[in-house]
Amino acid sequence: MSDLILFICETVKEEITKVVADIPVQNIKICVFPHYCTSGTHRPDSIISFMSEQIQPGQTGLFFGDTDLSRKGLLPPGISHVGPHTCSGLLAPEDFIQSFISQGSYVINPGWLSSWERYVTEMGFNPQSSTSYYSSNLKEIVVLDTGLVPIAEERIASLKVFSGLPIRVIQVGISHLSGIIRAEILQWQADHIQADCKKEVSSALETTARQMAVLTLLSDISQVSEEKEVISRILTTCQLLFAPHFVGYLPLQSDGPEEMIRMPPDSESGMNNELLFSVTDKDYLFSPDGTGFCVPIINLQETVGILEISGVSVPSRIKEYLNLTLSFTRFLGLAIKNARSWQELKQTRDALESANSELHDKNEELLAISQELQSSNQELITSQKELRESEQFIKGIVNSAQAGIAVLDHDFRILFWNPEMERLFGIFYTTIMGKSIYEIIPHFLLDQTKSLLIQGLSGKTVQAPDYELPASSSGKTTWISAIFNPIFDISQNIIGVIINVYDITQRKESEHDLERAYDAIHIAQSKLAILSSVTRHDILNRVMVISAYSGMLLENVSDEKALKQLKSMAIASKDIQHLIEFTKEYQELGYKKPAWQLIRNVINSRSIQSVLTGIELSIQGDPVEIYVDLMLEKVLYNLVENSKRHGETVTVITIKIEEAGEELLVTYSDNGVGVAEDEKKLIFKQGHGKNTGMGLFLIREILGLTHITIRECGVPGEGVRFEMKVPKGGWRRITE
User: Using CA atoms, how far apart are residues 74 and 44, in angstroms rounded to an integer?
Assistant: First the structure.
């Protein structure tokens, strides 16, 4: 039986070495290759080169690792991939591992943990500094503890600091690994035992056939016990068959050639000794003049002599003569060998009996292996059934989803298309699977959809603009919104794009109804604005008269009681003026319909920037648009103006934008004196404040038009902190 080489990843070296040591199979060599799944310095081509150097002709190898190498036909000859798709799948069932991966976990084994710094370096990270890549993409790290490689607490602690993720250790042992390795090695052994048995049976049958042919065709020669008599009869037979000028036989013994036997005795050979001896490693050799040939007489792969025939009667039939000679020279060796030593035949029979006995023992061993394999196969069938049931459950969830789901590969070929996509586009999955999305929906090439797909393949999650589908057979237009997400394999390589499509027709219809309502309100507000403007103007004129006369009286009246009353009148007239001016601002609330506005653009307006002299402004978070009244600029202006007027020590203002579940949280904060605790619940009331008392009241009213809430939750003495919550549907991400 040939040698077996096991190619394994260095991260499972200890476990597989332990399992192999307990398997009663000889001639097993373990070759450990560097971990290459990190796509670092050890790339697949270097691993393939490593395998080619380790395996020799006649040897076979079993490769446990990434199936990409075998799927792409890259494995060297003699090496085949066996076992699960990944190294982790050797330690625990793949559906068990997949359950963690589907929840956002990163599954590793103790061998990976012990050298994690080198692996993350090969992935392009600096192991000495923390990275947000893991914490932003994963939920936790799961270590499959086999109990063979010690898991040091300091290794877990250092990886936890680097990744920013919790680490969970799960005891899996090596029983699953042992079952896989034993099954594959014993299957390999069974295949080779079966092949060896076939060779031995074939050899035995060939030997028997040779003996029968000798008995049938050359019975008189095989019954002769004298070698010279056997040779004489062989030469006589050749003379009768071919009528040559020369027939010769050169006996070959273990100690060298003997003298050639000729017929006729005084005839001359047509070949020299060099040519004759060169036929020992060939099936035959023609003479230089083309009228003869020589063939080796072989028995049990041993050349016992060389038969030469020259000057045949019909040279044109030389090939027929050669084929006829070859048909019976295979059996002449047995007769010659028998004549040399009957004892050798006895030894041959003994060897055949011994081979038959060994064959019987191997058949018994093969039966035991087959029974063990049958048991393993039954376990595998059970696991596959559970996997199919799990896949069917997930498929049912996806197919019943209210959102359209499509999965595309690197070339944008359709791999999956759920029933909701069939409803939205009117295209059945069975007619388009495997086809390009551009072949099915050609106009995707003409808009920005192609750009969004390319961004998804680059690793980004992007929101597509609202899109209006052509009218269906019912004549109704459908509006959709889509999100493009990259799909990663277990090695974090991008393998495709998943598109989530939502039917927003009802929302669009509501927006259109709202627009019509706003148009009607706008007309009414325009009329009220004209009336309010005239009324304000008349009131302000009369207030100015009161203010002027009260001022004149203050200069000419000396009576204390009268002065006090006149001052109250002057203050009241100023308050009336401020209130009338506030009605002008309040009148503009809802005058125009809300719109999608980019916070970064509004804060950078000229009016707000003019107030920020001497103050540093910081905006944190991704670009986001919110649906809000056009007076958003007034909101941000009042917040900045309040910080500068009342914050006393303000030098930094920070606006932070972050997701809070389905809502958006916009936080405005400064480093001023803040708001006292007893003031927090009063600052948004109308009339409360150090000036007109209308600024924060107006802010709350403006934001409330689109259901945006605001509250102050800063720490007194450390600055203000206004939190504005934008509801679901009132904000959206944008690409810069």
Answer: 9
Place of tokens 């005084």: 266
Packed helices 695-704 and 632-646: angle between N→C axes, nearest 10 degrees? 150
Cα 213 from chain centre: 63
All residues at 6 or more sequence positions from 574 whose CB lies less than 8 Å from its CB, including other chains: 547
The answer for residues whose C-beta is within 8 angstroms of residue 500's C-beta and 6 or more apart is: 403, 404, 405, 482, 483, 485
C-alpha neighbours within 13 Å on the C-beta side of residue 226: 4
Pull the structure tokens for residue 99: 């359950």
Q: Write out pLDDT tens, residues 218-243.
A: 566 766 778 888 888 888 888 888 88
Contact 299/334 with Cβ under 8 angstroms? yes
Give, as one character, the DSSP assignment of residue 260.
P
Name, of 375-379, 511-515, 556-560, 674-678, the range with top average pLDDT: 674-678
| Helix H or strand E encompassing 597 | strand 595-598
Contacting residues for 58 by C-beta, under 8 A, at least 6 apart: 2
- pLDDT on residue 637: 87
Residue 210's pLDDT is what? Answer: 40
Kindly calculate the radius of gyration of the chain based on its CA atoms and give it in whole angstroms. 47
CA distance 330 to 303: 11
369 CB-near residues (< 8 Å, 6+ apart): 186, 189, 190, 193
Contacts of the segment 271-278: beta carbons below 8 A, 24+ positions apart: 271/308, 271/310, 276/250, 276/306, 276/308, 277/306
Span 614-627, mean pLDDT? 92
User: 212 φ, ψ to 5°?
Assistant: -65, -40
Helices (H), 419-559: 419-425, 437-440, 449-457, 505-556
CB atoms within 10 A of CB 206: 11
Question: What is the overall mean pLDDT for the chain?
Answer: 80
Instruction: Determine which helix (DSSP H) or strand (DSSP E) holds 329, and give its type and residue range.
Output: helix 318-340
> What is residue 177's DSSP assignment?
H
The angle that helices 94-101 and 342-399 make with each other, rounded to 10 degrees, is 30
**What token pair was written down for 294?**
């020589």
Structure tokens at 564: 């006090």
- Inter-CA distances, 582 with 246, 263, 422, Å: 135, 138, 55
Enter the pTM of the model.
0.34
142 pLDDT tier (thresholds 50, 70, 90): very high
Confidence of residue 672 (pLDDT cuts 50, 70, 90): very high
Residue 297 has pLDDT above 70, yes or no: yes
What confidence category does residue 707 fall into, taking pLDDT thresholds of 50, 70 and 90? very high
Give the bridge partners for 256, in sequence order.
Answer: 253
